[in-house]
Design goal:
TIM Barrel; seven-stranded parallel beta sheet; three-stranded mixed beta sheet; single chain
Length: 340
């Protein structure tokens, strides 16, 4: 993959379906047949639970209670990797469907990043000494440098394992960074955050990516541009202020790309609306993508949904999935028409 191949399409990861093998195959097959260039393995679990739950089974002081995670003391880095089954799913899928592999440019995997994982880890016992919560009711691991650093090492090893599977884009999902880095940076120095991100992605030899939702502050933009991450992935459809934050000059003359959120992925159900009312039409999306190309240059862009579609579970699985897959289909059609 290089800048001349852009813009291409991908997805963020999550879907509003039950976590079953059949649904994994269904979504992945649909993405390929629709024409997504870099399909991601489908996520059906909460992005934090997906990694913290298996981690709690091999880390002695990390405890899961009612799908919450509590750290009681220091811990050794586990020797075995967690959550490899998602990457293995894609490898095995293409062994069974080699003809479908020819229809895509590559694959993508999403990992939850160290800051977000540590924010979801509640501290107990001596670990809470001297800590005053600012953005949560109780002290969280994200407030403690050495714990965040250990989580970064775990993500690094997982990213390296996924890289060895031949996955082309590996993304660290870090929604919490939008809260940690505004006009001021909470808990840490800028250098620590940059070094931590670089450590987490250092096992990735292909294209590393970081996904941060919400409005991006100029401070966070500048910080992310200083990292080694290749793809900056953000919401634009529901946060159009981000068009004012990023400029073409941030990507020109660099190896970095901007993943432009192009369809909304979370919204409330309105009784009077039909399924199609929630789906952006192709002509609208063509104009939206044109706006991105004119502002950033097609060589600097990736086209994808704002975020994952997990929130659409509020519509029920059938309608939620239909809305999501129609959005992706129109996104692909819009870019395809612009290419010709």
């Amino acid at each position: 993959m290089d800048k001349e191949d852009t813009p291409f399409t991908t997805v963020v990861g999550s879907w509003p379906l039950e976590n079953t093998d059949n649904n994994m195959k269904k979504v992945f097959t649909d993405l390929i047949q629709i024409g997504i260039d870099y399909p991601c393995y489908p996520q059906f679990l909460d992005m934090n639970y997906q990694f913290l739950s298996p981690l709690s089974k091999i880390v002695k002081n990390l405890e899961e209670i009612d799908k919450k995670f509590y750290l009681h003391g220091d811990f050794k880095l586990p020797k075995q990797n967690i959550a490899l089954e998602y990457g293995e799913f894609m490898v095995n899928y293409f062994k069974d469907h080699p003809n479908l592999r020819e229809l895509i440019k590559g694959t993508k995997a999403c990992l939850t990043g160290p800051f977000t994982l540590s924010f979801e880890t509640i501290l107990k016992n001596d670990l809470t000494k001297g800590l005053k919560p600012l953005i949560s009711e109780e002290p969280r691991a994200v407030m403690v440098d050495w714990i965040v650093d250990k989580y970064a090492e775990i993500v690094k090893q997982l990213g390296s394992a996924y890289n060895d599977m031949g996955i082309d884009i590996i993304s660290c999902d870090e929604p919490i960074l939008g809260l940690l880095v505004g006009r001021k940076i909470l808990f840490h120095s800028e250098d620590f955050i940059i070094d931590t991100i670089n450590k987490a992605i250092s096992g990735i030899k292909g294209f590393s990516s970081i996904h941060v939702c919400g409005r991006i502050s100029p401070n966070l933009r500048d910080l992310l541009l200083k990292t080694n991450v290749k793809i900056l992935d953000h919401e634009f459809s529901t946060n159009e202020e981000n068009f004012k934050v990023f400029e073409r000059k941030h990507f020109q003359g660099t190896d970095k790309l901007l993943a432009l959120g192009t369809v909304e992925s979370k919204f409330v159900s309105i009784k009077e609306k039909t399924i199609d009312d929630y789906v952006e039409d192709v002509d609208y999306l063509k104009e939206y993508i044109k706006k991105g190309i004119e502002q950033y240059g097609k060589e600097n862009l990736i086209i994808k949904p704002d975020c994952g579609f997990y929130p659409l579970k509020v519509f029920g699985e059938k309608d939620g999935y239909e809305i999501a897959i129609k959005k992706v289909k129109n996104l692909v059609l819009a870019l395809k028409e612009l290419r010709h």
